Amino acid sequence: MTELKLYQVGTFAAGNRLLDRTERTEQSDAWRTNSITSGHRACRGCGEALAARVVLDAAMHATEGRMVTVNATGCLEVFSTPYPESAWRVPWLHSLFGNAAAVASGVAATLRAQGRDDVRVVAQAGDGGTVDIGIGCLSGMFERNDDVFFICYDNQGYMNTGVQRSGATPAAANTSTTRPVGSRVGNAFGTGKSLPVIAMAHGIPYVATATVADLHDLERKVTTAMQMHGSRYLHVLVPCPVGWGTDSADTVRVARLAAESGFYPVFEAHDGEVTDVRRIRRQVPVEEYLRLQTRFAHLFGDPGHPDVVERLQGQADRSIAHFGLLEGEAR
Amino acid sequence: MNASQDLPFGVTLGPGSSAADLTGSWRTERAVYVDRVAPCGNSCPAGEDVRAWLYDAESGGAGYEAAWRRIMQVNPMPAVMGRVCYHPCETACNRGTLDESVGINSVERFLGDEAIRHGWSVTVDMPPTGRHVLVVGSGAAGLSAAYHLALAGHEVTITDASEEAGGMMRYAIPRYRLPRDVLDAEIDRIVSLGVHLELGVEITDLDALVAERTYDAVFLAVGARLAKRAYLPAGSAARVLDALSVLRSTAEEDAPLLGRRVAVYGGGNTALDAARTAKRLGADEAIVVYRRTRDRMPAHADEMQQAEDEGITFRWLSTIGQVDTDGLTIEAMELDDEGFPQATGRTEHLDADSVVLALGQDTDLSLMGDTHHLDVRDGVVVTDPVTMATNRRGVFAGGDVAPGDRSVTAALGHGRRAAAGIDAYLSGTTVDPPAAVELAPYEALNTWYFEDAPRQHRPRLEMVRRQSTFDEVVQDLDAGTALFEARRCLSCGGCISCDNCFALCPDNAVLKLGPENSYVVDLDYCKGCGLCVEECPTGSMMMEPEEV
Question: How far apart are CA B459 and CA B477, in angstroms?
Fold first, then answer.
């Protein structure tokens, strides 16, 4: 019999009464930091609010509470700090939309100048502040290999301003700037970019992707990053019930399906080389992922666009093959 | 906010925490914790809370004893039941939809055997009530009632016409399914609670018994010991026996002579027991003749499989026309549109040295005298389904003599309910009827979180020994496989403290108050997104609309 950590739910759930504390997630600990506390104005079922707490709590645990956070403009900043309140229970700085990486580089330089090598710097932004508006500062931070851990919470659009397309919006998605009209079927194919791959191209020490559906994987990647120095980058998929048109209860489910369909590859890379992937456990067709979201509803109407669904499945198939996401496949 | 704070120029409000903003006011639905009933326990005729004792057993070690004690709250014979129960719990088990049902029966047997190995026992903690209850019949129903009555502080006497206690468990279930040392150990444990056991005693007059008022209440658990007969035109010589007497004399080490070819007529578990016993007694061939088809056979699938493995052969859609000198004439049947077998008139000869009839059993109420004044309908004593009370004051009945499934499991349940009924009768109170339950359906689970875990099956005895000895066929799980099997439980409808609700709330609106199963939804901040309910593996949460 193979060794299974089979305590009813194995290690897939956040915690487990029968597992050793070290094998449970930080989120299952009643004494977690709660970096972003209750009362914030995120929409219900917000994937980003959840991911931010998971990531920062894990980072706080890894740094034993000695950490500064820099935040770009975006949903996360807007819903957490309406004047004069703040939901943050960690040292937290906000400057502009596009300069989070630069501010974080500056904080790191300041700490170095002060001789404070015990305090670590974390920067966070949405996909707008990362892949579009902040990419210049971020690329600079990467190429200088500044000692900053940068996290992008990717909800695939400019959500709090009214769901506009970003460079991370998937093809065929219906946003307020990519309406499916006539022969146009939403966001154009062949546009957008993969920031994890761009980050890898900088040859920085650590790049990883994750989703809010797998807390063990997400926390492990944060912990790995916090144990290293230099520029590190984590890209977390965070479903947005409002912008994606999903049920607020389905946030984790839709993130899980993004990974299980192969549409969103979950992997990690050291020094620009992919070193590990999270294998698909229960593969589903991309359609199952798309159908939960009204931003893809036009693909399934009458007559719908089966050819477009086919094309999106093709994207998933290519990423499955490229990263070797299926069990037993070579990577 | 402190107005006297030294605020920068132009800033009128001091900093505050977002916790001042009670976002729970956005909510239209709220998440609540529920304890739904798992299908396993709901389907258990003995009334076991299967999910709860599997939960105990999942800890292993000391958890085994806790699990065993929880079983013992309702079922005094876990080692026996882990062998002979047809486990409707496993049929109902939600894991069957995912991969294969949890081997509840095998875990129960493991726990029962652990108890025997370690000498775990129970004690009577109630003070003596001074009341004396007579239990007629020492089968599963009688033993179960005696056990629960003794635990409640009553004095109990069991009488039985046989030489040894156990009823059908001893005289009808073959040893290869239920070894006698296991049965003896569990009966001894019940008797050692102070139960008086009077064997070889026939009760012949219920009326007199009640009139004498020696006992404060009587529980009739006399079973169904009469084998049903069929009229078979017998040419001559071939031996015709009934399955019950074949099994009984085999159990009494006085095996009947059946010959080299044995035909068994019937399609229930007793027919298979008789055929497998015949094989072990030396028959070259044991043929089961049944009127319908395999899928309509009432025998349990497990038993069927084991019988086929041992080389028992079957003649489907066949009925016995007449018994001849050298065998019998069988007639082919056809199923009509309603699925009833109809004769076709086509006959053939089947060689057989003996014919064993396994056509079911009837109750035998003659022992209660001609004037027992009990309501009897369809051959069984009419009883209240909650208390097992009969129409006579102070007389209760259960097991095969009462309506219901004729199984050891059902009999144990009858015994327990009767004990509760008798206890209430003696103390002048009433038993509340069971409350309506809300089941945890498969759809309420989030099976993503359950690890893929193939079922562990109990090993079987090697075939040679199965065809010639009465050694036990189905072997025990070992400690590793039993623990594994217990941990396959999905705990449908019952919190397992997995922390998903606490970990996945975007608003920190689930509070974790202790290490196990103590969460609270903080309604000041719960926005009602439903994430916790959706991601709860066991279906122990649900959304409830807010009153607007």
Answer: 8
How many Å apart are CA A203 and CA B433, to the nearest integer? 72
DSSP code, position B271: H
Chain A residue numbers with beta carbons less than 8 Å from the beta carbon of B533 are 249
Q: What is the C-alpha to C-alpha distance for residues A217 and A226, in angstroms, rounded to an integer?
A: 14
Tell whether domain B39-120+445-486 is in CATH 2.30.40.10: no
Contact A251 B529 (CB under 8 A): yes
Q: Which helix (H) or strand (E) holds B168?
A: helix B168-171
- Which residue among B499, B508, B534 sits closest to A38, beta carbon to beta carbon? B508
Task: Confirm or reject CATH 3.10.105.10 for domain B18-35+495-545, answering yes or no.
Answer: no
For testing the chain A interface, which of B448, B491, B519 should be mutated: the one with the most A CBs within 10 Å? B448
Q: Angle between the B269-280 and B301-309 helix axes, to the nearest 10 degrees?
A: 20
Q: What is the pTM of this model?
A: 0.90
> Looking at domain B228-359, what is its CATH homologous superfamily?
FAD/NAD(P)-binding domain (3.50.50.60)
Go through the domains of chain A in sequence order and give each one's CATH number: 24-323 (3.40.50.970)
Could you state, in chain order, the average pLDDT of each consecutive group of 10 residues for chain B (548 residues)?
66 87 95 96 96 94 96 97 95 94 96 97 95 96 98 97 95 95 97 96 81 89 86 66 92 89 93 94 93 90 91 92 83 87 88 90 78 85 95 94 92 97 96 91 94 84 86 87 90 94 97 87 97 96 92
CA-nearest of B121, B130, B185, B184 to B152 is: B130
Residue limits of CATH 3.50.50.60 in chain B: 132-225+363-427, 228-359
